[in-house]
User: Fold these one by one.
Assistant:
Number 1:
Amino acid sequence: MGVSCEQLRVEELRMRYEELLEDPSVYPTEANWQFICDHRLEGLGHLLMAKYVTSLDRDELDREELHQVAIEQFPNYLQAVDRLYALEVVYEYSQAPDEVIVDLIRRCRLFDAARLLGWLRQDRVWEVMAVLDVYQPEYEPDDLEAMRALSAAIHRLPAEGRVEERRGLFGVGMKYICPNGHVNAPDAEYCSHSGCGLNAQGLTADQVKRLEVLDTRIDALTHLME
Ligand SMILES: [Zn+2]
């Protein structure tokens, strides 16, 4: 395989960036980000994600311009590089708050049913449920299979809440006990305690809605691929 002078120059710069970005105090400039995105430089993903996460972590008043630039540019980077690489960067980064990961998956359309099923098996239910309605740019038959497996696994989540007999002020009656142990009317589908809202499977109404979106999407894809 031949290598052009331009390719060589870019690789040399990529290696230089890799070395520089290892230093936690170094943040790319706007021009650096532009170059990195324009050339879709791979191999820098986790280093760049660390810049993004640490910038977001700073109090807004303490953020300097380069932190702001990192916050703006990292999602562009994820959308510039090859999708498989972007998935690897986001799903395999372990030092970011769940909310940050979920937000990146939503904004950069990094839905990937096979990886989400892996998260579900690791009990990362909240993150999985938060991105079920996210699109991905294109779908292959394997993606549809993975989406079906993901949906089936969620539908099989064990019921941790239950309806049982409880003694109260006015005698004994049936109550819905949510997975967090709150006592509700027996016909309540979702816990009514503020900040809880779980059904017997431990899902909120919003999460169930997103699962419905996924199931509808599976049907639509099935029609298109048949
Ligand atoms: Zn509850």
Note: The pocket of zinc ion is lined by residues 178, 180, 182, 191, 193, 196, 198 (CB under 6 Å).
Number 2:
Amino acid sequence: MSDVPNARGGASLVLRPETPHGRVYEHVRCGGLTEVTEGDFTHICNPFRPCIETFCCQCSRHVPLNEVNWADTQEVVSAYRKRLRRATPMLIKLWRYGLGVLGGGFLEWE
Ligand SMILES: [Zn+2]
């Protein structure tokens, strides 16, 4: 994670077809922008991995996910994770929660 300049109002969106490796979120209480990258990025984007807080570079502390918005879409990060969970088919959910082995075992048993 790193500091990025506060570019509110001055940023232009660039559409990139490749998979992103990071994203910037804004802590609504302080207006600070923090870029999340690599492992932290995949963690915060995976709605099946426990995550209730993230780091705000401006505050230099962890803040609740419902206090940060993605800077590009303004979507609250906790709402984003809920939306991804809802959009995931049940079998994938079971697999993501680590129960795929259970399901596979059940199928073999039949
Ligand atoms: Zn902050």
Note: Residues 2-109 form one domain.
